[in-house]
């Protein structure tokens, strides 16, 4: 093998020996013919003795056809189908022979060992002594290795000439392709190129290959009008000495780019190659293979080697590729393909062809943990046939169940092909951890559309260089490109709660007597948790589970967690790399964590159970967990998992990399948001609060610090340990105030009295009930006298019956919240309900617009006093619209009964003129005021420090518990 390495370095693509095609077949004089000997004078003169004899023996032993083992054992060879002498590749290749069409190439290139005397190969060029020596050494080494291997596996399966296998392989592919394309084999264009080449054994410590793929564009042919061709190298299987490559030449490199989008159809202009995405149909690219040219492929010499994987040559005629199906977007495939092939020359002339390299860097998933390109389409790519495979999956990498276990995440990597083709090599005990570290292997390409979105798994699991020692049959999933295993996964995103669902309860410590736990900072939350009107946690939990979150159901993070759970039975802290401390709260510390081996980032809130019990904060932790379990909203965090590890209760949540709104405000000029920006944020918050209320959750701790900014600039409300859960009794409120005595409005479909009956479905009734339309109509047709218009509208809407599904009647006597945000009724201890959220909503809007809260005093006591007694004032600057001030005024009404939203909930607030023109339904698609700088917020930094396994140390600091990373 070492000779291969050395030989690999010598070979240049442009010096590849190309052999002419004859009558649709490659022709070559029989081995040892006089012509051949003439072409190798140096060899003849110098090696007339035993060496020559050896060579002759060696070649003669190879039968008539080229030995696949040899072909595959040589990194220099590439069988390549080619359209004709007039193809673009030919044209390009001729460039390299321009000075000396045959001799130069032969002298510069290693002679194609193993196949030189095959009658399928065209006339060989003269060869130098040096060349001959190299050939001899390499071919002998190759032969010895092959014989050694064959001797081992001889018992496993009947031996068939490898040359026959190659021959059969080609026949199959040709037949299949011809059948599919409807073209005669010898007339088809060169669309698929198959290289069966060995790979130089690259040490596992070799540099990782960048994630990119090459697109080799050949020059258009002079004689045949043929679009530029894109080559994708598709590693199919590892063999004992290297890797077999199926090289697909797709017409039109633009396919690759098209495929980046979730387009539904990709096709070449020539129609020879089709790559289509459709929901229910499997499209098989039309593949036409012409007779091959033998080429030396330098690309593959750089591919990593799966040293431990073995090729059973009998499997050659059972193609892998044909059954390799990809139910995914093509970009994934391309990314996968490229991952292994980027040692190819970046640009220049290769094999006389104009080579342009298209490099696609796969964005770091961890920086885009929310990337969800969700395709509801499936793509299957089958090259050649689904029944005949070019190669079969090497089962040596698989345990008996054709399954690989990733060392860290222990996800199962299954080979689909093995299901149809029982392994002939039953040596399933080989360790993927070691083998894959130096190999490149695609076991199967089958991915469910639901899991494509996420790069983290991306269906590409790459073996790490340093597998763990204690785990055989496993491979480590990492960013390394040394080996690629395409994961076949059955995606069921909603099956989160499974056997391993760590649904451990935080130990129950009933603490109903908790009273008045104050924090020191005026901005810190006060936590006298009480649940006077709370309903039981179980009643919620029975209805919801972590997996039952439709809006996030396609998130690949579910799948990542599911795999860990399936493999380990449960999820624990040991499955996460804690990358960074995000913050420390009253009941726990939040860390940025990566699920080991998946690049999936999470925010994990870690709470010490004993500490909570001692401080009587267990109910708060329980409430938060119960609420998180219920949530499924774009502006609220998703709880992916929960578990107890070492007496630590952990909540695995969605990670928000953009920091919080408090920090974002500080970064603004004059430390406050513009009115449009503030409107955007509070609108999203309003929707989140409305959702919470409808779930029976009164948030009670609204403040900029608890509003996190997602990667996409939208918000996420977090921190529910002070929230109150209560029952919701949806009610239909009829108008309490008489409708306006406006005859114009009293007539026609806008007559609100028409809508009194809740079950009325008269069209004339539905129109006026569609309040946003009415609002937008007013907004679009402003009339001169509009000073009282908002009031009129409000009056009109108030006169309509309305379903209120928010807990307007809930009451609690707890003293909770943050000083500057506390509602008067909480401070006065009069009992409070959902209206406290509308008070805090008003304070928030005030702070976003003015850069400070309205009632802040010198100290907390004064602040509380101001809240209760001080009238609301607005600063002169910055300038704020009347509508904004009016909304704030309506929200900061000290009497909760008169507060906007107290009667009909969020709907009342949404109708306020401040929000006129806002499309509530599509706000999640609106462009946010700004995008967070992820690196600035430390996420990128932390993510880049991957591999640093750090550990937790718990420290109690006063009432707080700190978990230190070291
Ligand atoms: N999902 C998340 N993504 C990113 N950062 C988060 C996430 N959840 C929390 N954080 C960060 O961690 C910090 C601590 O959060 P946590 O919810 O524990 O409490 P808190 O709001 O600071 O305090 P308390 O629980 O006492 O009200 C937050 O300030 C926030 O910056």
TrEMBL record:
It comes from the Eukaryota. Residues 80-125, 416-435, 494-525 are annotated as: Disordered. Residues 81-102 have a biased composition (Low complexity). Residues 576-915 form the Protein kinase domain. CDD domains: STKc_phototropin_like. The keyword ATP-binding applies. The keyword Nuclease does not apply. It catalyses: L-threonyl-[protein] + ATP = O-phospho-L-threonyl-[protein] + ADP + H(+); L-seryl-[protein] + ATP = O-phospho-L-seryl-[protein] + ADP + H(+). Residues 500-517 have a biased composition (Basic and acidic residues). Gene3D superfamilies: Phosphorylase Kinase, domain 1 (3.30.200.20), Transferase(Phosphotransferase) domain 1 (1.10.510.10). InterPro entries: Kinase-like_dom_sf (IPR011009), Prot_kinase_dom (IPR000719), Ser/Thr_kinase_AS (IPR008271). Keywords: ATP-binding, Kinase, Nucleotide-binding, Serine/threonine-protein kinase, Transferase. Its EC number is 2.7.11.1. GO terms for molecular function: ATP binding; protein serine/threonine kinase activity. Belongs to the protein kinase superfamily. AGC Ser/Thr protein kinase family. This is non-specific serine/threonine protein kinase. It comes from Capsella rubella.
């Amino acid at each position: 093998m070492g000779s291969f390495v050395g030989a690999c370095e010598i070979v240049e693509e442009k010096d590849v020996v190309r052999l002419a095609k004859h009558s649709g077949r490659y022709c070559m004089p029989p081995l040892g013919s006089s012509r051949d000997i003439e072409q190798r004078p140096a060899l003849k003169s110098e090696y007339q003795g035993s060496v020559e004899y050896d060579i002759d023996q060696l070649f003669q032993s190879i039968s008539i056809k080229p030995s696949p083992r040899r072909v595959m054992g040589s990194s220099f060879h590439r069988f390549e189908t080619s359209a004709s002498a007039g193809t673009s590749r030919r044209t390009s290749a001729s460039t390299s022979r321009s000075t000396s069409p045959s001799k130069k190439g032969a002298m510069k290139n290693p002679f194609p060992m193993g196949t030189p005397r095959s009658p399928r190969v065209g006339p060989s060029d003269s060869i130098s002594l040096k060349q001959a020596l190299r050939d001899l050494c390499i071919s002998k080494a190759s032969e010895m290795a092959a014989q050694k291997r064959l001797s081992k596996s001889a018992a496993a399966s009947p031996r068939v000439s490898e040359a026959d296998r190659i021959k059969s392989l080609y026949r199959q592919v040709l037949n299949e392709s011809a059948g599919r394309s409807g073209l005669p084999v010898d007339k088809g264009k060169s669309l698929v190129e198959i290289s069966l080449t060995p790979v130089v054994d690259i040490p596992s410590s070799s540099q990782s290959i960048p994630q990119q793929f090459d697109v080799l564009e050949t020059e258009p042919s002079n004689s045949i009008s043929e679009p530029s061709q894109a080559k994708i190298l598709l590693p199919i299987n590892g063999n004992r000495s290297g890797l077999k490559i199926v090289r697909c030449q797709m017409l039109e490199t633009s396919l690759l780019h098209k495929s980046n989008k979730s387009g539904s159809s990709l096709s070449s202009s020539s129609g020879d190659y089709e790559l289509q995405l459709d929901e229910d149909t499997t499209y098989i690219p039309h593949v036409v293979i012409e007779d091959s040219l033998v080429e030396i492929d330098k690309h593959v010499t750089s591919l990593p080697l799966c040293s431990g994987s073995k090729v059973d040559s009998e499997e050659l005629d059972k193609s892998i590729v044909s059954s390799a199906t990809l139910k995914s977007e093509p970009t994934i495939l391309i990314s996968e393909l490229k991952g292994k092939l980027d040692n190819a020359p970046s640009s220049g002339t290769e094999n006389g062809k104009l080579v342009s390299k298209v490099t696609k860097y796969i964005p770091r998933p961890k920086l885009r943990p929310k990337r969800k390109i969700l395709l509801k389409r499936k793509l299957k790519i089958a090259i050649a046939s689904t029944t005949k495979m070019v190669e079969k999956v090497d089962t040596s990498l698989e345990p008996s169940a054709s399954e690989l276990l990733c060392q860290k995440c222990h996800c199962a990597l299954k080979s689909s092909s093995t299901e149809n083709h029982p392994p002939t090599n039953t040596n399933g005990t080989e360790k993927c951890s070691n083998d894959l570290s130096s190999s490149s292997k695609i076991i199967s390409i089958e991915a469910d559309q639901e899991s494509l979105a996420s790069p983290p798994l991306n269906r590409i699991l790459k073996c790490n260089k340093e597998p763990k020692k204690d785990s055989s049959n496993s491979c480590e999933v990492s960013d390394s490109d040394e080996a690629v295993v395409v994961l076949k996964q059955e995606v069921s995103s909603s099956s989160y709660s499974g056997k391993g669902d760590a649904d451990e309860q935080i130990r129950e410590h009933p603490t109903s007597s908790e009273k008045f736990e104050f924090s020191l900072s005026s901005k810190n939350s006060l936590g006298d948790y009480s649940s006077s009107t709370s309903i039981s946690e179980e009643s919620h939990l029975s209805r919801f589970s972590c997996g039952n979150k439709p809006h996030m159901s396609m998130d690949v993070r579910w799948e990542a967690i599911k795999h860990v759970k399936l493999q380990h039975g449960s999820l624990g802290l040991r499955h996460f790399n804690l990358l960074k401390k995000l913050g420390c709260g009253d009941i726990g510390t939040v860390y940025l964590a990566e699920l080991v081996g998946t690049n999936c980032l999470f925010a994990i809130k870690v709470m010490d159970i004993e500490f909570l019990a001692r401080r009587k904060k267990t109910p708060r932790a329980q409430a938060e967990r119960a609420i998180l379990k219920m949530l499924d909203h774009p502006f609220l965090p998703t709880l992916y998992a929960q578990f107890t590890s070492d007496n630590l209760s952990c909540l695995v949540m969605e990670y928000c990399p953009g920091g919080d709104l408090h920090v974002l405000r500080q970064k603004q000029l004059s430390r406050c948001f513009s009115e449009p920006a503030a409107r955007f944020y509070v609108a999203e918050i309003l929707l989140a609060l409305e959702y919470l209320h409808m779930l029976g959750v009164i948030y009670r701790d609204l403040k900029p610090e608890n509003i996190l900014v997602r990667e996409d600039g939208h918000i996420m409300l977090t921190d529910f340990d002070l929230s109150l859960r209560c029952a919701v009794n949806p009610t239909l409120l009829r108008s309490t105030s008489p409708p306006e005595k406006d005859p114009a409005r009293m007539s026609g479909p806008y007559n609100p009295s028409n809508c009194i009956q809740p079950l009325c479905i008269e069209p004339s009734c539905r129109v006026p009930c569609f309040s946003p339309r009415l609002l937008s109509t007013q907004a679009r047709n402003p009339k001169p006298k509009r000073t009282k218009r908002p009031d009129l509208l409000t009056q009109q809407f108030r006169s309509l019956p309305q379903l209120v599904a928010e807990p307007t009647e809930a009451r609690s006597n707890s003293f909770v919240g943050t000083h500057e945000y506390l509602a008067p009724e909480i401070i006065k201890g009069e009992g409070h309900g959902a209206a406290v959220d509308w008070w805090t909503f008003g304070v928030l809007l005030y702070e976003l617009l003015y850069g400070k809260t309205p009632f802040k005093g010198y100290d907390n006591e004064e602040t509380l006093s101001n809240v209760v007694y001080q009238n609301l004032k607005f600063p002169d600057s910055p300038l704020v619209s009347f509508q904004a001030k009016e909304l704030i005024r309506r929200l900061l009404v000290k009497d909760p009964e008169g507060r906007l939203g107290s009667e009909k909930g969020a709907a009342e607030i949404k109708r306020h003129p401040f929000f006129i023109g806002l499309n509530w339904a599509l706000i999640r698609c609106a462009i946010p005021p700004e995008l967070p700088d992820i690196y600035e917020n430390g996420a990128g930094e932390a993510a880049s420090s991957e591999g640093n396994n750090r550990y937790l140390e718990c420290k109690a600091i006063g009432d707080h518990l700190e978990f230190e990373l070291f």
